Amino acid sequence: MAGNLLIRNAHLPLADREAASWSIRVSGGRIAEVVPADAGVPEVPAGTETVDAEGRSVLPAFADSHVHVPESGVELLRCDLTSCESRDEVLRAVADYARTHPGEEWILGRGWALPHFAERPPTRQELDAVCGGRPVYLANRDGHSAWVSTAALDRVAPELLRNPPPGGRVDRDADGAPTGLLHESAMQLVSDLVPPVGAEDLRRGLLEAQRRMFSYGVTSWQDAIVGPFVPTTDIYDVYRRAAADGSLRARVTGALWWPRDASEGTLSELVEQRRGCPPDSRFACTAIKIMYDGVCETHTAALSRPYVGVAGAGTGLTFFDHADLGRAVPEMDAAGFDLHFHAIGDRAVSECLDVVEAAHRANGPRDRRHQLAHLQIADDRSVARMAALDVIANVQPYWAQADPQMLDMTIPYLPGELAALQYRFGTMEKAGVRVAFGSDWPVSTPNPMDWIHVAVNRSHPGEPDAPLFAPEEAMSLRSALRAATAGSAYALRREHEAGTLEPGARADVVILDRRLDETALDEISRTRVDLTLVDGESVWAR
């Protein structure tokens, strides 16, 4: 599908006014006209291809404001555990992978879930038994913990295991021996020893994941870590090459990694990297990623009050000295970067807003797209500050459900007043905070219809009888659709290209398999994408 295109008989859920159906004319890869059917069919040049939407819903293609695409693609090519639903399934999958990949020195993978090990944490001995003594490194679903084998631990200097880097924890058994579970920066004790991912494997991962994203109607995204955090996130070059040779069809904004040991020259290095990716290219690096705290499930998210019943956890941790970051952030802001903070706990949210406010004071007004990602716990004062500072709420709505990770691994350990302040999308929207949706894939599903389902229903997709989680924070369907399209495109600085069907925008369009206004809210997750267009050309069809 190339050249001129006409989409007829379309239902537009995000149109500013109602019409029985609409026609969308595409010319030169851009939206040329969007007119109601009662105005007649637009005149089109000879040779124009026509697609009949047959009354199905048509949307601007989705944008994902926080995702790890090449990394997710690489994980699809490794020992992928994301579909496993129990401890036994995980161990069978690891054993099967080890048996069918006898030539691999390391068993590498990702995707096991902490709730499946709630009764008893995973151990290195279990991996030893199914992997024949090979070194094993398996990141969990959220990427904040790793399960490793004895052979992997044996490659780490004993003094490093005894004294892990700041912000890291090595779990130990009753005798003081490492169990095989590493958290946060302690993961790097083993991940730094893993053979580097080759450029070709990263490229294969990127293209495989791009196909997956297109199948869900996602044509633009923000890659939330571009830099040497773990081997699969050092993806600057693979994106640049794919943009140069045309294999990158999506529009990508890269968030350059701010290292925890940043030096005086770090910012200059990131400025140079940004210069190598022009803002109008398929890959532009306009943001900096700062991972400020951990996650609630491992008691490393930074809270204002201590965790309940967890010896030694205190109020969690942060990965940067607050005063140091308060000096560095205004410099990043002055250099024109958008700042993308990982902030889970309420203390992390408040402290990140402190440094954003310092940047405003130091540098005065400008077009900023600073954003707090995840925002699991936020009090009223922080929500009001986000609105006042025009900080984007970069949220992962799929997490706002009463699943085992929430019910068994989070709520019991949070002070009650904080447990009641989780995933406050409705409150943020009412306060005037800009909301952008993201997946954090491979942590959770890249399918926007699943995120939208949870945002609207506050329950697990496909389970109409599932318990609701803070239903007062639900969003309307229209608001959720906007957050997954225009809201995320704005966070990416792609709002003039993506997230809209306005004339002049790039013709990134999805046709769904149904009319959303005739779909029950608890059936939203059943919606599928029939056709995905980039610049008016088909990149995926069901």
UniProtKB/TrEMBL annotation:
Residues 49-539 form the Amidohydrolase domain. It comes from the Bacteria. It is an enzyme of class 3 (hydrolase). Keywords: Hydrolase. Pfam families: Amidohydro_3 (PF07969). GO terms for molecular function: hydrolase activity. SUPFAM superfamilies: Composite domain of metallo-dependent hydrolases, Metallo-dependent hydrolases. Its EC number is 3.5.-.-. The keyword Hydrolase applies. CDD domains: YtcJ_like. InterPro entries: Amidohydro_3, Metal-dep_hydrolase_composite, Metal_Hydrolase, YtcJ-like. This is Amidohydrolase. It comes from Microtetraspora fusca.
